[in-house]
Structures are given as C-alpha cells and as structure tokens.
Amino acid sequence: MTPVLKTQDLKVHHNTARGQLKAVDGISLSVAPGETLGLVGESGCGKSTLARCIVGINTPTSGTLEVAGVSPEKSRLARARAVQMVFQDPSGALNPRLTVERIIGEPLQIHQRAGREARKAQVLDLARKVGLSDYHLERLPHELSGGQRQRVSIARALALNPALLVCDEAVSALDVSVQAQVLNLLLGLQRDLGLTYLFISHDLSVVRYISHRIAVMYLGRIVEIGPAEEVWHRKMHPYTRALVAAIPDESARRTDAVLLDGDVPSPVNPPSGCTFRTRCPFAQARCSTEVPELRDQGAGLSVACHFAETLYTV
Ligand SMILES: Nc1ncnc2c1ncn2[C@@H]1O[C@H](COP(=O)(O)OP(=O)(O)OP(=O)(O)O)[C@@H](O)[C@H]1O
C-alpha cells in the first residue's frame, strides 16, 4: 500500500550568524493510510520544522518527501489539499473577525466551486463531525472556549478531505480534561473517516494515547521508532527513558530512570558522534566518535544507540 507520507533522508539546515543550524538532519519515515505516527521530543528537537516542511511552509535542504505517492513540489495546489495542519494555538490560526461558519467554509470557497447553499450544508456537516452545532457557526472565535476553537481548526482542516492531517502540539495549550476530549475526537474521526495523522507533541503520554507508532526525535534525528507499546514499555533509547521519567506520577517509569539535565544542546555545532551523549548517563568513549544508526531490535522497533541491547537489561 502506498504510504500517505514518506520522507527519505530529509534535511532542513539554516544558515545562521553562528554557523549552519541543522534543525532536521536526515529523517526517513513513512506513515501508512489510516495510521497515526506520533513524533515526540523536547522543544527545539526539530519537530515543528519537520511539520512545516511537510505542509510546505519550509523547503527541505535535501532529501525527498512524498505525500500520497506524489512529490508535493510538483503541485502546490495538490499539496494544499492533500496535507492540512492543526496548530497549537487556535487563536493565532483563526481569523478573529470571521464567524466560525466563514472560517470552516473558507477552504471550500477557495478550492471548490460549490454554491452558497451547498457550502453551508457542507460546513454544518463538518461542524457536527467535530461536535459543534448551528449555534457555534454564528460565533466569533473569541466567543468560544479553547477546546471549541481547536474543534473549529480541526473542522477547517478536514474541509478538503486531506490525505494527511499534521497536528503540531494540537492539544498542548488545553486543560487536561479538554485535551482528553480533543484526543478522543481525533480518534473517533480517524475511526469514522479513515484519517491519517502525524501527531506531534513534547508529551510522550499524550503521544502514546493516540499513536499506533511513535518516533522519538532528538536534535534533528530519530533516535527510536516503533509500535507505540514497544517504545513505551521497552524504552530502549536512554532519551526515551528520560522522556518517560519526565512524566509526573508515571507508573511505567523505571527504577533506573534517566533524568535530563539542562536543555537540548544547540543544533549549531551539535555534539560529535551520538548527539545525546552529553546528557546520557551511559555514554562511553565510542559515543563521541561514532554516530549510532537506527538498528532493528525486533517487533518493529529500531533504536539508534550503540548500547541499546546492554542498556535494556540494565
Ligand atoms: N528559520 C529558522 N532559522 C534559524 N533557526 C531556526 C529556524 N527555524 C527553527 N530554527 C531552529 O531549529 C531548531 C528546531 O526548531 P523547531 O521549532 O523545529 O523545534 P521543535 O522541536 O518544534 O520545538 P518547539 O516545540 O519549541 O517548536 C531550533 O534550534 C530552532 O531555534
């Protein structure tokens, strides 16, 4: 089956005053139809840059990117329809002067020739799919709650039946109970409409809840990728262990939890060899000279750590 998203050695490097900044540094991944791939990592790991590349806001420095089997550079219009994004802050993404009806209907107005009445019916149908009603359609964004605004963003994103929905920290600004409602909405929509998601968050417990597979990202690279429960329970990469340890009251936390000190190092002149070694309690001499490649660990899990097997039994 053709993947909905496929990237091969994708890189986004920025020229900055301090040198070349490798925001995304060789990402290869694919997402199957109807699947959710969760992308997790701390702030500054390059998650948003990768997302912006996929939706066409950023241009890759090198590598290939295909959406539904087509290279999106070939057709800007096709990409505008094929990939939609839901952002963290719906207030910033929604025009404050337009009613919800206009906001949800805008993509239809731009891309479809449907008449006013047909569009109105489509908008109401989209609103109902995300749990909103006629009442909400007449409101302005500031009259809605944060959760309702995020529902509007999702309805708008779904208007053109995208092949892929990229959710970038889509629930991070919401209260925990509202987060759960929006996550459940996304799960329900996927079940009913067969949607495909790339779901990005710094919060591994949120990513685990919604994802079939999880990719853990550190300084522009994937350090662990596999089925959600394999990543969560085996957490073979020390960085994955650290992300689990950072979750408050997490019962899955191992007794030998890795605790993260400080911030992610600068992507300008990142550490040699394994870029995580400067924060890794298990780092050895080899880690500073040799870049670890992703290696198959069985059950669909791949881990980029020289000592993954030995550490797993620690
Ligand atoms: N246009 C740009 N020019 C230079 N550096 C950039 C640019 N865009 C992003 N960066 C840098 O690239 C790195 C990755 O940023 P990115 O926003 O993708 O990370 P992130 O994991 O999504 O974090 P956050 O959740 O905070 O957005 C950061 O060091 C950031 O400062």
Automatic annotation (TrEMBL):
Gene3D superfamilies: P-loop containing nucleotide triphosphate hydrolases (3.40.50.300)
Entry-linked Pfam families: ABC_tran (PF00005), oligo_HPY (PF08352)
An individual GO BP term: transmembrane transport
Location in or out of the cell: Cell inner membrane
GO MF annotation terms: ATP binding; ATP hydrolysis activity
UniProt record similarity statement: Belongs to the ABC transporter superfamily.
Membrane topology recorded in Swiss-Prot or TrEMBL: Peripheral membrane protein
Main location: membrane
Top-level taxon: Bacteria
Record keywords: ATP-binding, Nucleotide-binding, Transport
Species, as recorded: Ketogulonicigenium robustum
UniProt protein name: Dipeptide transport system ATP-binding protein
GO cellular component, one term: plasma membrane
Span of domain ABC transporter: 5-244
